[in-house]
Design goal:
Radius of gyration: 22 Å
Distance between the termini: 54 Å
Strand content: under 5%
Largest sheet: none
Number of domains: 1
Helix content: over 70%
Mean pLDDT: 89
Number of helices: 3
Order of helices and strands: HHH
Oligomer: single chain
Shape: elongated
């Protein structure tokens, strides 16, 4: 079941959506908004999963007093240099 909801958008967002429709990427504003919202929610779900994983790592560090992941190579050097700045 689909439901209509009123929404207010900034002019630049409406223009971007209209561009997508005029290019034929979407058939209508409604279709564009539906698909863009779905994509945003998929990204949000990924962000939530990453956040939970990071929180788990912090919890392990709090419990054990040790960082649960050992970094090496370029990433380790980058982080060390960043700490010096």
């Amino acid at each position: 079941m689909t439901r209509g909801i009123p929404v207010r958008l900034d002019q630049d967002i409406v223009e971007a959506i209209d561009t997508l429709v005029s290019l034929g990427i979407y058939k209508s504003r409604s279709e564009a908004l539906r698909e863009l919202i779905k994509e945003g929610l998929r990204n949000l779900n990924w962000i939530i999963k990453v956040n939970k994983a990071v929180e788990s790592l912090f919890e392990i560090e709090r419990r054990t007093g040790k960082i649960p992941i050992e970094l090496d190579g370029e990433l380790k050097r980058f982080l060390e240099e960043r700490r010096r700045s």
